[in-house]
Amino acid sequence: MLNHQAKNTTTQTNPTIKAPGVNYFNQDTENSIVKFQTEPDIEIKKKIFLEEIQPAFLKLIENIIFVYKFHTLGDLDILKNDCLSFLFETLYKFDGSKGHKAFSYFNVVAKNWFIQKVKIFKKKNKSDVYFDKALLNKLENSDEKFVHNYEESLMDLEFLILMKEEIKKWRLKFDKKQEKMVLEAVILLLSNPDLISIYNKKGIYMYIREITGLNTKQVVTNLSKIKKKYDSFKKKYLGGEI
After folding, report:
1. Burial call 125-140: b when 16+ CB within 10 Å, e when fewer
2. Which H/E stretch holds residue 235?
3. What is the pTM for the complete model shown?
C-alpha cells in the first residue's frame, strides 16, 4: 500500500480520505478468502488467515467502531478480538459465486455483530437500573413482585440451559435427512445466539433457510416435529418432571 503512495496524489494531500475496501480489503483479500475456504491443510489455512485475511478484518473492525461510534461498549481490545473470532467463524459462509463482494458481506456481518452487542449492552444497563430501583422499592413496600420477576428470570435461564442439552439428544430420534438438517440448524442457533440479529419467527426461518439451503415450506414442515418435542419438554419442565 505504501508503494503506491507516490502515485496517489489524493492520498498524499489528504490521507484521511480512503475509498472503502480499496486499501486494506481488495481483490487480493477476496482471493485469499476463497483460497482459505478450499485449502484442506489446517496449517496452511492458519497461515493464510493470519497473514492475508486477519489484517483486513482488523482494519474493517476498527473502521466500523470509528464510523458507528461503538466506543462505549467496553474494552475495545476485547471487542475487536471477539468480533475477529466471529468473522473467522463465518468465513465458510461467504459465497463469492452469488455475486457478493467479500468486503460488503463481512462489513454487514461485523456491523450486525456490533449492533447485537449494543442491544445486549443497553439491555444489561436497563436491567441493572431496574435491579437497583427494585431493591429500593422493596424496602418501601411489602409486595413480592420483584421476587417473582427474579424467580421467573432464573427459571427462564434454567429452562434454556436444560433445553440446549436436551435438544442434542434428539439427534438419535430423527431419521429423515431434512429433519436432521433443520435440527442441526436449530442447535447451531441455540449455541451461537450472536449469529441472530432478528428475533422473530420470520427471522428465525430466514436463518434456518440460509444454514440448510431448504426453502420456507421445507423448513416449516420439518420444524413441526421439533416443535412437538419442544412442547412436550416444556410441559414436563413446567410440571416439575424435569
Report:
1. eeeeeeeeeeeeeeee
2. helix 216-238
3. 0.45
